[in-house]
Amino acid sequence: MLFLAPKALAKERKAKISPGNLGLCIFLQEYVKQGLLVPDDIVNAILKKTLPKDNFVLDGYPRTLSQAKLLDNIAKIDKVIYLDVPDAVIIKRLATRLQCPKCHAIYGLNRKPKRDMLCDYCNIKLVRREDDEPEKIKIRLEQFYKATKSLLKYYHDRLIVVDGSKTENEVFNEIMAKLALKS
Ligand SMILES: [Zn+2]
C-alpha cells in the first residue's frame, strides 16, 4: 500500500535515522534544506536494502514514474491512497507549523503549544522549519504535481482518492471505509 501526498519526505528521512546511516541522513538533509527532492538512484538503493517482503505501507514514495516502475519490480503494491488537499490548505498548514529545535516535536493548527511559542517538553522557543518557508513550499508543490500526474495515471487501477483536507480522524475513517470497499 502506498500513500501519495506532498510534505512526507521529512518523515521518511526521520524514520531512517540510526547511527549506522547518519552520514546518509545528513546528505539527504541537504536536499530537503534546498526544498528539493532526493534523486531517484539514491532512494531506490535505500529501498532495495530496507524494504520488507510484505505487509508494509510506504508514505511519500514513489515520487516519479521511474520509481513506481522500479518499485513494482521490488515489491507487490496492491493499493495506492492519494490524499487530495487543496494548495491553499497545504500552504496554510505548513506556514503555521512550528518545530522545537531540541526535541523536534511539531506544532500546528491541530496541536498548539500549551504556552505561546514554547515547546511543551523543553520550554524553549519554537521555530519554523527551514523547508516550510513559503517559497520552498511552492517549489515542492510544483515538483509534486508534475511528478504525481503520471503516477496517478500509472496507478489508476489500484488508486483510492481520499479528501485530505478534513481532520485526522475523518481522513482515517475515509481511508478505512474505502479500503474495505476495495478489498
Ligand atoms: Zn522540545
Description:
There is one protein chain. The longest helix is centred in the last third of the chain and has 21 residues, at 134-154. The chain has helices at 9-15, 22-33, 40-50, 65-74, 87-95, 134-154, 168-182; strands at 2-4, 58-59, 80-84, 98-99, 106-107, 159-163. It has a domain at 2-80 and 135-182: Rossmann fold, CATH 3.40.50. It is globular and about 45 Å long. With 183 residues, the chain is an alpha/beta fold. A hairpin with a 6-residue loop joins strand 4 (98-99) and strand 5 (106-107). The model is unreliable at 8-22 (pLDDT under 50). The protein contains seven helices and six strands; from the N terminus they run E-H-H-H-E-H-E-H-E-E-H-E-H. The strands form two sheets. A four-stranded parallel beta sheet has the order 2-1-3-6. A two-stranded antiparallel sheet has the order 4-5. Zinc ion is lined by residues 100, 102-103, 105, 119, 121-122.
What value does the Rg take, in angstroms? 17 Å
Strand % is: 5-15%
Name of the CATH architecture of the domain at 2-80 and 135-182: 3-Layer(aba) Sandwich
Number of helices: 7
| Overall morphology | globular
Tell me the CATH topology of the domain at 2-80 and 135-182. Rossmann fold
Helix content: 40-55%
- Classify the secondary structure makeup into a structural class: alpha/beta
Average pLDDT value? 80
Strand order of the biggest β-sheet: 2-1-3-6
C-alpha termini separation: 12 Å
Bound molecules: zinc ion
Order of helices and strands: EHHHEHEHEEHEH
> Would you report the number of β strands?
6
CATH superfamily of the domain at 2-80 and 135-182: P-loop containing nucleotide triphosphate hydrolases
CATH top level label of the domain at 2-80 and 135-182: Alpha Beta
Instruction: Flag low-confidence runs.
Output: 8-22
